[in-house]
Amino acid sequence: MIISKMKEGLLALGGKNIVVAVALMSLAACVQIKAPDKPIKINLNIRINQEIVYKLDGDAKKLIDQNSGIF
Amino acid sequence: MTKIGSQKLMGRKRWIAGALLTAAAVAVAVPSAMAQRDPAYEAARAAGQIGEQPDGYLGFVTAPTPDIRNLVTDINIKRKAAYTNGAPAGSTVEQFAFTTACNLIAKTKPGEKYKAPDGSWQTRGADAPIRDSRCI
Fold first, then answer.
1. Same domain assignment for residues A27 and A45
2. For chain A, what is the domain count?
3. Which of B46, B110, B122, B135 is the most exposed place for a label (fewest CB within 10 A)?
4. A29 with A41, same domain?
5. Cβ contacts of B104 on chain A, cutoff 8 Å
6. Chain A residues with beta carbon closer than 8 angstroms to that of B37
7. Interface test with B, best of A53, A61, A64 (most B CBs within 10 A)
8. How far apart are CA A16 and CA B52, in angstroms?
């Protein structure tokens, strides 16, 4: 009911206002969606720890020596 | 087996041995040619136009020419293949690439560029490079 009344009000105000209102609403939604972006990136990085680096270091050195044209 | 038959066989054996030797020589020659850096790649590194990133791939320090862009794209595709084929069981391609990057940044020569963990391009000096804290 409230929403439909708001819509009626917005319609009465004219098309441009509706566009502005929609744009503002979508902006607000964007901020809420973007918030969890950063923790996801950090999680990707955390998948590599020093223990894994120690385990892979020998193989990494061999790879560089055997493919020196691309490294 | 007749004499003629055995002679023919000997001839064929010798031919096969020769072919195998030629194939072996080619197999040895090709990797040694691949092992050296393309002079254009070496020059772009030395000039600081491209640099080593912590993710195991090359990046552009300055806006690249089409030639340098193609060169780097080509090398990065080959690197991706090398990481994918070389990643030991139980590790991901990204983990193996990251560990390789630790070594590649450590191996940069003075004057070459590398990307620090904060994302900034750095010029390698005489001191140890700034690397991710998980590098060994």
1. no
2. 2
3. B110
4. no
5. 64, 71
6. 68-69
7. A53
8. 50
Look up the ipTM and state it.
Answer: 0.74
Whether A71 is covered by a domain: the verdict is: no
Question: Would A22 be classed as within a structural domain?
Answer: yes
Of the candidates B38, B104, B136, which has its C-beta nearest A50's C-beta?
B136
- Cross-chain residue pair A52–B36, CB shorter than 8 Å: no
What phi, psi does B133 have (nearest 5°)? -65, -20
Whether residue A19 lies inside any domain: the answer is yes
Q: What is the domain extent for residue A41?
A: 37-66
- Which residues of chain B have a CB within 8 Å of the CB of A49? 134
Per the domain annotation, does A13 fall within a domain?
Answer: yes
pTM: 0.63
Residues A6 and A30 in one domain: yes
* Inter-chain CB proximity A68 and B37 less than 8 Å: yes
Query: Which pLDDT tens digit goes with each residue over B42-66?
Result: 999 999 999 999 999 999 999 999 9
Nearest C-alpha neighbor of B88 from the set A68, A44, A50, A62: A62
Residues of B in contact with A43 (CB under 8 A): none
| 8 Å CB contact between B37 and B50 | no
